[in-house]
Amino acid sequence: MTFIEKLSCAWEKNNSLVCVGLDPDTERFPSSLRDVPDAIFQFNKAIIDATHDLVCAYKPQIAYFSAESAEDQLEKTIQYIQTEYPDIPVILDSKRGDIGSTAKKYAVEAFERYKADAVTINPYLGFDSAEPFLNYKDKGTVLLCRTSNRGANDLQDLDVGGMPLYQKVASMITEQWNFNKNCMLVVGATWPSQMSEVREIVGDMPFLVPGVGAQGGDIEALVKAGQTANGTGLIISSSRGVIYASEGDNFASAARSVVVDLREKINLHRN
Ligand SMILES: O=c1ccn([C@@H]2O[C@H](COP(=O)(O)O)[C@@H](O)[C@H]2O)c(=O)[nH]1
C-alpha cells in the first residue's frame, strides 16, 4: 500500500483529518515520568493509546529525540504505532535537505532506519536533493511550501518571475517532482489565503498543515481554504496544544479530549 492509500484509509476509518504531533519535551512531562529511563517513549505511548481512534496520522518531530540522545525512543515510538495501530501512518518531521549524495543517506535514515511512512524535507536545494526521497515509490515526501511561522514571508513570498516563490515551488513540485504521485506540501494553518492559492495550483495533492492550537491557526478558514472537493486533502497537525493539554498525570486523557474537540471542529467545515 502506498502512503497516499494508507492516509486515505485513515481519513475515512477515523473520520478525521487530525494528526497528533509528537514533540516530547521532557521538561513538560508530569513528575511521575521524570525519572523513568524511557520516559519519552512512555509519554508518547500514553498519548498514542489515548488518541489512535481519532487521528489520520502521527508526526514525531526528530529534534525532540535527538536533542536528548533519544533516537532509540523515536525508533521505538514508530515501531509501536506500526505494530499496535498499523492503519495509522507516521510522518517523520525532520526537514532534511542536502546535496544528492547526503540526501540519499537521509532518505535511508527516514525510510529504512526509522521506517517512517513519510518524511518532511526542505526543497530549497532543488530536485537532486529531493530525488532520493521521491524514488521511494510507496513512501510519502512532504515538501516545505508555505511554512506556518511568522517569518515565512521573508523568503517564501519573494517575487520570482511574477509569482511568489512558494507558488513556484508548488507548481514545480506538481508538474516535475510528483512522478511517483507521492508528494505532499507543508502549508501552514496560519496562512489560509495563501493555502487556497496553493490548492488552486496543485489539485488534490495532500497538505500537511501545522499551526493550529499553540500557533493559533483558524480552523474554519484553513479547512475552507485547503480541503479538496471530497472534504479531505488535509493532515492538520497539532503538537503542544494536544500533548500538553495537561501537564499532570491525566495528560493522556486531556490529550484525548482536545483531539475529540479538534476533530469535531474540523469536521463541521468539511464538504
Ligand atoms: O511550517 C511548519 C513546519 C513544521 N512545523 C512543525 O510542526 C509542529 C508544530 O507544533 P505546535 O506545537 O502544534 O505548534 C512542530 O513540530 C514544528 O516543528 C511547524 O510548526 N510549521
TrEMBL record:
According to its UniProt record, the EC number is: 4.1.1.23
PROSITE patterns the UniProt entry points to: OMPDECASE
Look up the domain of life of the source: Bacteria
Orotidine 5'-phosphate decarboxylase domain location is: 17-255
Q: What class of enzyme is it?
A: lyase
Q: Which UniProt keywords are given for this protein, alphabetically ordered?
A: Decarboxylase, Lyase, Pyrimidine biosynthesis
Q: Does the keyword Lyase apply?
A: yes
Record's SMART domains? Answer: OMPdecase (SM00934)
Its annotated pathway reads: Pyrimidine metabolism; UMP biosynthesis via de novo pathway; UMP from orotate: step 2/2
- What PANTHER family does this protein map onto? OROTIDINE 5'-PHOSPHATE DECARBOXYLASE
Q: What is this protein called?
A: Orotidine 5'-phosphate decarboxylase
At the highest ranks, the source species' classification is: Bacteria, Pseudomonadati, Pseudomonadota, Gammaproteobacteria, Thiotrichales
Q: Which gene encodes it?
A: pyrF
